[in-house]
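User: Sequence for Aminotransferase below. Tokens please.
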Amino acid sequence: MKLAARVEQVPQSVTLAISAKAKAMKAEGLDVLNFSVGEPDFDTPQHIVAAAKKALDEGKTRYGPAAGEPKLRELIARSLTQEVGINYSAENIIVTNGGKHSLSELMMAIIEAGDEVIIPSPYWLSYPEMVKLADGTPVIVPTDAATEYKITPELLRQAITPKTKLFVLNSPSNPTGMVYTPDELKALAQVVVESGILVVSDEIYSQILYDGAQHLSIAATHPEVHKQTLISSGFAKSFAMTGWRLGYLAGDKTIIGAMTRIQSHSTSNVCTFAQYGAIAALEGPLDCVETMRQAFAERRKVMYELLNAIPGISCVKPYGAFYMYVNIGKIGLGSVDFCNALLEEKQMATVPGLAFGTDDHIRLSYATSLKNIETGLKRLEEFVEGRL
Ligand code: PMP
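Assistant: Structure tokens for Aminotransferase:
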């Protein structure tokens, strides 16, 4: 079977093998602790579930407009207008099957062969693959703990060439949990405006912040930059709605129109009754978001203290999302070998940093119980101790 060249260049996910192994071990009855998940461990809040059930009962079961239910687009536009301070209207919004779909559809709409897309590493693992699937060229810009894994204006400027079309920014970040400060965003926005490139700001973790960190969209940091900014977000993380597949992209209406054309010939509208769940999510009450954030905050505190007490590994304190990105460079194992051995010897599933572009790290998710965190971190300590 000859497959299309575009798919041949996309590798199998390095996380897949580990999660399959963890599942198999669990099925055998082993006590596997899972720190590899990228989703909240909470159920979707009841009022959101109820709204979708009501929509089903009311017959909201038919095709809808490709770009999304008008009311949902309005609500998203209104909340962004408040948050960013720039006027968004419904025609600046497309509702998609998740943040992942927003980003991949955006790439399909604006990237063509020869276009370069700047992606700071560590990066969320799907960004480079999406660019390749759209025939573009990912340009990876390595960052490290010295700048809290954030790209600096100098690094961005150096990476820009006449072929650069897009810069991918993710704050709060998966996998590092880092949050860009307003000054850092302002400085990056200056480079974006001067160079005329587009920026996609993946803000899917914008509600999950700690210790007073504030979310600011790069779109709000410079009077001109919003014209070049696309905001990608969704309901999965802040409202515990991962399986609903609900996201959106906001920005220039020509780009939104192009994405809508693609969507109309590929997935059509997002599940109609699911969109009524999203409407309820935005209409509130919003205390469910805060309750989940507080639970994450407590787990973050415990995990960070326990991690920092383990000699030989280190972690920059995260201020958002629900991940810790741990440097294992002193242990002398590549990240895939490290994660495999940790799973086999200690029944602890984590994600190798290789998946995010840095092989001397592993990612731990704290979307799990405090008890699991306490037990798991003891296991990690024993594992590391035996190897120093
Ligand atoms: N962006 C980032 C940084 C993510 O971590 C995720 C989910 N893992 C997504 C986008 C996509 O989220 P979804 O498609 O579930 O909305």
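The radius of gyration is 21 Å.
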